[in-house]
Amino acid sequence: MFSSRFHWDARPNRLTQLLRGRRASGARILDLTESNPTQAGLCYPAAVGEAFADPRIMIYHPSPAGSIAARESVAHYYADRGHTVDPQHILLTASTSEAYAYLFKLLADPGDDVLVPRPSYPLFEFLADMESLRIIQYPLGYHGAWSIDMEALAAAITGRTRAIVVVNPNNPTGSFLKRGELAALADLAASRGLALISDEVFADYAFDPDPDRVPMAASQSACLAFSLSGLSKAGGLPQVKLGWMVCGGPEGLRREALEKLEWIADTYLSVGTPVQCAARHLLDLAEGVQQQIRDRTAENLLWAREKLAGTVASPLPVEGGWYLTLQVPRVRSEEEWALEVLARRDVLVQPGYFYDFETEAFLVVSLLTQPETFREGMSRLIETLGA
């Protein structure tokens, strides 16, 4: 009766089962996986709510790409970061997940494939399955720093590959795309007739400056490219549901892509009028929230590096984002480590296989966690690993 898309195993994994049991018993869990900024103890200005006190929200003017005022607001957001973006090259969505869905519809037919990085956030398989596409992973190599294995990526391209996805900075490794990598990717994509999709939701959260990092992949002109972001991360506002894509590349391809994307968007008209009217105010307020997040993640990262020095756990270098990856002893699997620290110390961490790390053993923690919880949870984790 139901679509074959729904082939996933919905049974809870061992970690979820144990977490439910610990919470049911009344245990106070120190959650080192918190990634929801609205649950992280940040201070949001009252003006966020006031941004929706606009009489225009009562008038509906359907615009498939999004209202020009809202797209100009996004263009202004990029201008503040040194990028000139034509509002006509921006298309609004309700989220970056929806942006992926639109792009997969635009670029691929059922049975085609899309290249995605490994390790990375475990969302692409679900999004691709919903469009009846196939995911092929290409590796990020780690040699003291993370980089794309360009030979492996090129070898992974098939006759049905339609797009290459990059996450910049990557989640959870926190590694940024470098200018040389973008040039190689763009040349490869152009020569093979592929599009480049760059997920840049964490781009505002670099720990240190680096002129070699790529701030926006859609700024290059060699291949059709899309830069994705949204208020969920840029404003710490996942609940307001506003994302966007910037389309770049050769003019003819860009124009045709945007025309077809408007057809897709017109079918759904998913972006609400209130958030479009509020977009400029919310983006103007974003810097204050971002600074709190940058301060929080930097403080937690510095503390973790100092606390982990000389222990059996090694923090991997991280350039940006909200996460820290720890390499831990392989005397047991990363799942067993995560289960043990939850069962014995009431600390929740994520095992690396959640993000498709190719080898063991890695644990991932969120730097967005409130400092007192982060420090107590990390101390318990270190004690457990050392024991």
Supply database-style keywords.
Aspartate Aminotransferase, domain 1; alpha/beta; Aspartate Aminotransferase, domain 2; 387 residues; four-stranded antiparallel β-sheet
Task: Describe the protein's architecture and organization.
This protein is an alpha/beta fold and 387 residues long. It has two domains: 14-43 and 286-386, Aspartate Aminotransferase, domain 1 (Alpha-Beta Complex), CATH 3.90.1150; 47-284, Type I PLP-dependent aspartate aminotransferase-like (Major domain) (Aspartate Aminotransferase, domain 2), CATH 3.40.640.10. It contains twelve helices and 14 strands. It has helices at residues 14-24, 47-50, 68-79, 96-107, 124-130, 150-156, 179-192, 231-234, 251-268, 273-308, 334-345, 371-386, and strands at residues 30-31, 90-93, 113-118, 134-142, 146-148, 161-167, 195-199, 225-230, 243-248, 314-315, 323-327, 347-348, 350-351, 362-366. The strands form three sheets. The chain has an eight-stranded mixed sheet with strand order 2-9-8-7-6-3-4-5, sandwiched between helices. A four-stranded antiparallel sheet has the order 10-11-14-13, covered by helices on one side. The longest helix is centred in the last third of the chain and has 36 residues, at 273-308. The radius of gyration is 21 Å and the shape is globular.
TL;DR?
This protein is an alpha/beta fold and 387 residues long. It contains 12 helices and 14 strands. The strands form 3 sheets. An 8-stranded mixed sheet has the order 2-9-8-7-6-3-4-5, with helices on both faces. The chain has a 4-stranded antiparallel sheet with strand order 10-11-14-13, covered by helices on one side.
